[in-house]
């Protein structure tokens, strides 16, 4: 498709926000525009995020998405994407969320970070990423789509803020020098029954590589990761349907557990 003008970008962002507000899904953007570029999709994302900020929301971080092979296979894509975390999307562990406020929610367990210093640049190393981390924690990301039936491409996901709906943060602990996040095994349970597992290495070989990838992507867009921001590295397993009247919990040997109750 030809590069859309600002009016198309704004109208598309408005349609996504309306779909979320009304909880009525719309056709994926690539149904009408199969050649939708990732650059254009990020423009739509930016317009929608800007609208949320003008309404009072505040940026608190970023997410890297579909960073594991399990998620790429589930979503039918072969590359990662990123989205923006806003303060009104983040909840502490133990929170209760109404299933009815979302449309087609799914949940995934992730290793996540809080940065102690800025991280920016095209070729950030894993060592630089590790040095920028102040705290590490387990998170449950609730993903949702404003599109019909999760029939989406990576461009659709990007336009839809990488499908991010809510983030539940576990207790944060310092990233110790001897902590091997690639080898950290996560177990996800629903109502006390283990339903999914995955190791940190499922995310680009090491969750810290999600930071290096994200720093590079944001650098190419003229920005970067900032001290104090939260960063989700991506799911270590395929996402799970999020059902009402359930409790989802993720645990691992070296990080405190995180829990979400759904009513």
Strand content: 25-35%
DSSP helix fraction: 25-40%
Biggest sheet character: 9 strands, mixed
The radius of gyration is 17 Å
Number of domains: 1
Helix/strand-derived category reads alpha+beta
CATH topology: Fumarylacetoacetate hydrolase, domain 2
**On the 0-100 scale, what is the average pLDDT?**
95
Commentary on this structure:
GO terms for molecular function: 2-oxopent-4-enoate hydratase activity. This is 2-hydroxypenta-2,4-dienoate hydratase. Residues 93-262 form the Fumarylacetoacetase-like C-terminal domain. With 263 residues, the chain is α+β, with helices and mostly antiparallel strands. It has helices at 6-22, 29-32, 38-54, 69-75, 126-132, 154-159, 207-220; strands at 59-65, 81-86, 90-92, 95-97, 106-115, 133-143, 164-169, 173-174, 185-190, 193-199, 230-235, 240-241, 246-251, 258-262. Strands 1, 2, 3, 5, 6, 7, 8, 11 and 12 form a nine-stranded mixed β-sheet that branches. The chain has a five-stranded mixed β-sheet with strand order 4-14-13-9-10, with no helix packed on it. Strand 13 and strand 14 (258-262) form a beta hairpin. Helix 1 (6-22) crosses helix 3 (38-54) and helix 5 packs across helix 7 (207-220). It starts with 5 loop residues before the first helix and ends with a strand. The model has no long low-confidence stretch (mean pLDDT 95).
